[in-house]
Structure formats: C-alpha cells, structure tokens
UniProtKB/TrEMBL annotation:
The EC number(s) this enzyme carries: 2.3.1.-
Low complexity compositional bias, start-end: 159-180, 255-274
Protein name in the entry: Dihydrolipoamide acetyltransferase component of pyruvate dehydrogenase complex
CDD domains membership: lipoyl_domain
Length: 523
C-alpha cells in the first residue's frame, strides 16, 4: 500500500521564521524524485528552491503563490510506494531464480543485504545540504546491473501478458505492433498518475496543448521523455496538413530498453535549448551596460561609501515661506531699483541661499566638515568648506565642488553654481572641479520628491538633502494656514559625531530656513 507522507517547510536557517511562495515547481499528480525542488520561496535573505526528501507522487499542495508560509507548515503531501504483487513485492520487481536481481536491474533484499555486509553499515538520508533540513549523508542508492558486465544477466524491460516484446529494425518498431503496444500503454496510463518525471516535459506539453495521458512514453515502464513530446509535436504538425489525427507514437530513435540510470541522468540534466515554436514571440534579449567612465567611478565611490561608512539619517519639516519671500523681495528690489548699489546682478537661486545657510551651520558644527582616516585612526577636520552639490547629467551623476564656499556670499554662490552646472551638462568639468569636497548639498527636490536617505559622498562625513518646496497645511502662529513646506534630511557618518551634533546642525538649518533673519547675527 502507498504511504502518504507530509513534507513541511524546513528551517531555512539564520533565524528565519517563514517564507513566501513564489512559484510551484510541481503539479498535483506529478512524480517527484528525492531532492527534487518542488517550490521556489522567497525569504528575507534570498530566493530558495526547496527540495523534497521523498520520492513518489504529489497528492496535494498547500498554499497559493504569493502566500506566506511559516516554518513547519505543510507544503505538499507525497504518496510513497506502490501496489504490491502476490509475493509482497512492488509491482515490476520480480526476483530472479539465479542471482537475486530484479527484472528492472536492481538487487533483491538478499543481495542488498550481502552488499550491506560487505560495505559496512550505512546511514540513510536524503543527502540534502539545505541549512537546517535533511541529512548530511548521501542517499543510499540501489545497485544496478549494467549491460555487458561479465557474469551478470542483462536487464530487460518489465514484461506484461498483454504487451509482448516488439521486434525492431534499426531502432524502429513495426507499425502494426507499435500501434497495438501504444493502445495497451495508453489504456493503462489513464487511471494512474502521468508517467513524467521532468517538469520541463510537462511545461512543454502544456504550452502546446498536448494531453500527456494520451501519450505513450519510450522510457522504462512507459516513462514519457522530452523526445517523445517533441516527436509528437512534429508528427502533429505534419499530419495536420494531411487532415489526419496526430499520433502519439514514441520517438523512434529512443530505444525501448533505456535504463533507469540514463533516464534519471536525463531528468537531472540542465534544460537544453530547442527549436522555437513557429509563431511564438521572440524572447527579449538581456541588455548588459558596462560600468565605465563617470558611471563606473560613481559606482566604485558609492559602493565604497556603503561598505566603509556607518551612516545614519535624521530629518525635519520646515516652513520655507519666509525664505521664499526673502528671495522674492531681493528679486523685486533688483527689478524696481536696478541702479541701486544694493540691487546686485543675477537673480539669487534657492540653492545658493541653502548653501549659505549650510556654511553658517558648519561654522557652528565643524564636526560635520571632516573625514575619517582609518589608517591613522583619526578624524580629520577641514578648516575650509569645499561644498559639493549633486548634478544629474546625461552621462550620469556628478558632484561638482564649489571651492571655499564659506567665503562666498549668495551672489557669488549663485554664479559659481551656474558655471559648474553648465560645465557638467556640456561635459567640460575638470578633475579639480570634481574632487576635494568636504560637504555635499543634495537638492533632490528638483525631481519632484520630498525625502531621501542619500549615500554619503566618500570620504566626506555628511550630506544635507533638500526636498521639494510645496504648499501644505501648517500651523502658523496658532492657526492653520497654507505654507511653503520643505523636508530637510541629514545623512552623517556616525564615527565623526553623535546624534546630538547632527540634530543640532539640522535644527539650525531649519531655523534659518524658517527665519532667514537669524543669519544677520553671524554676518
């Protein structure tokens, strides 16, 4: 009698308590082998193919694709074993009167016992190497009698009263006898599970509308191979033009006496490319883009930053209404009184005003204008502020540097930002324009986003991020009003300072954004 065993989700290791079912690799009624992957799951660490420790027929699956399954919950049930004959042995395993070998080439219990006594005790196990699952021993396999070995009979295909051996000529069966054998095998295949091991064979048949239960396999005991399905597809395509019913005759080039070992090797071999089906859409090609030039440099720099710098991020919302009013007031004054010495030149940019606030904040919190020398195990504080700003170009992300930003006013900062931005767009930045920064200002609000946790520009120690400035509800002077609100974020190297310094810096920047007159105290 077949025994139904339940396979539960194993412990996948590293403290994981569950997984999500991504894709089932087997269907109900499919024959599975020991250690064959049956389901693909996704954990918090990676994607994992979970193998089954049992060999048999899948009788049930638990959980749909996308469902969360805890460790220890059942995944599938497998019917192990099969009906027994009159002697108590599984069907098709008749003993030999001479050497104790079965007709399928495996050894009987007596011969296996002798082998066991000769080889010593062996522990059973699936041989699975998944963490926390299975055993570490390799699976105990039955000995096979290979054809041509001296002193041993050549194994033959299982004989049945209704299916005599079919004579062949150059590997091809006679037409009448092959048809009779096909009818017998087809009639017997309808009641039991489909004799298919490889999921690839099932998928190929399903994609082309073939019913595997109506096919006869050329493998041992009627096992349907990939060659059988491909041959049936070719036969169906040929006879469809002649108006005849497609045949399910086994592939003529596959010998009927193929051994079980060869079948398992074929099932476990990686899938091979086959001729595309006529009319099927071509699969899109994978595109590989080399990391070179600016993209390659930035990739190396950002990877190094993520690897070496233990960064942290804090953020705050600020009312930028007064800052925007101050900028508009400077613009109106220049338009109304262009001859005034205080009118200035070009329009002041918001980025220049934020840069001026940054330099004032770094004067109060110099810890953030520094870098870390791990070789000397020292924090290096820089006396000058060389302010970098992120600029997105067609060639990739670049960070030009404004030299001695702490000595510049808003007009000078606006002019320098404009010059470096134009040079970045035209690709004329020099190496000196892209190196030597001590602090970075990242205005990602130009992309229409509010917040971010940027990667620090190595070897700097901090980066100030500025989101978009948009109208939002805000409590102003005790009343709800619509104000211009911006989100500010500071990502900093936790080796150079603690959260108190980072919070103080960010709070000072927010206060200056909300009340620009605060800067008058430090002019």
């Amino acid at each position: 009698m077949a025994q139904v065993l339940e396979f539960k989700l194993p412990d996948l290791g590293e403290g994981l308590t569950g997984a999500e079912i991504v894709r089932w690799l087997v269907e109900v009624g499919e024959v599975v082998a020991v250690d064959q992957p049956v389901v693909e799951v996704e954990t918090a660490k990676a994607m994992v193919d979970v193998p089954c420790p049992y060999e048999g027929v899948v009788t049930a699956r638990f959980g749909e694709e996308g469902a969360e399954v805890p460790v220890g919950a059942p995944l599938i049930t497998v019917a192990v074993g099969g009906p027994a004959d009159d002697d108590g042995r599984p069907a098709g395993e008749q003993s030999s009167a001479t050497d104790g070998s079965r007709t399928d080439g495996s050894r009987t219990d007596g011969s296996r016992a002798e082998d066991s006594r000769a080889q010593g005790p062996r522990s059973e196990g699936s041989g699975n190497v998944l963490v926390g699952y299975g055993t570490s021993e390799a699976p105990a396999r039955r000995r096979r009698v290979r054809p041509g070995q001296p002193g041993q009979p050549v194994p033959s295909a299982p004989a049945t009263p209704t299916e005599p051996a079919t004579p062949t000529v150059n590997g091809r069966a006679a037409a009448g006898q092959a048809a009779a054998a096909r009818q017998v095998r087809t009639a017997g295949a309808v009641d039991g599970p489909v004799p298919v091991i490889s999921p690839l064979v099932r998928r190929l048949a399903r994609q082309n509308g073939l019913d595997l239960r109506e096919m006869a396999g050329s493998g041992p005991e009627g096992l349907i191979l990939r060659a059988d399905v491909e041959y049936a597809l070719r036969a169906a395509g040929t006879q469809a033009g002649k108006g005849r019913t497609p045949t399910t005759e086994p592939h003529p080039r596959v010998p009927q006496t193929q051994t079980q070992t060869q079948t398992q090797a074929q099932a476990q071999a990686p899938p091979q490319a086959h001729a595309p089906i006529v009319g099927a859409p071509a699969a899109p090609e994978t595109i590989r883009i080399p990391l070179k030039g600016i993209r390659g440099v930035m990739a190396d720099k950002l990877s190094r930053s993520r690897t070496e710098i233990p960064d942290a991020t804090c953020w705050v919302d600020a009312d930028a209404t007064e800052l925007m009013r101050a900028r508009d007031a400077m613009r109106r004054f220049a338009e109304e009184r262009p001859r005034s010495p205080a009118a200035g030149g070009a329009k002041i940019s918001v980025l220049a005003l934020l840069a001026r606030i940054c330099t004032a904040a770094l004067a109060r919190f110099p810890e953030l204008n520094s870098s870390v020398d791990m070789a000397a195990r020292e924090v290096v504080r820089h006396p000058a502020v060389h302010l970098g700003f992120a600029a997105q170009t067609e060639r990739g992300l670049v960070v030009p540097v404004v030299r001695d930003a702490h000595t510049r006013n808003a007009e000078s900062l606006t002019a320098e930002f404009a010059r470096l931005t134009e040079a970045a767009r035209t690709g004329t930045l020099t190496p000196a324009d892209l190196t030597g920064g001590t602090f970075t200002l990242n205005n990602y609000g130009v992309f229409g986003v509010d917040g971010s946790t940027p990667i620090i520009n190595h070897p700097e120690a901090a980066m100030l991020g500025v989101g978009r400035i948009v109208p939002r509800p805000w409590v102003h002077e005790g009343e709800l009003a619509v104000r211009q609100v911006v989100q500010l974020s500071l990502t900093f190297d936790h080796r150079v300072c603690d959260g108190g310094v980072a919070g103080g810096f960010l709070r000072y920047v927010a206060d200056c954004v909300e009340q620009p007159a605060v800067l008058l105290r430090t002019l």
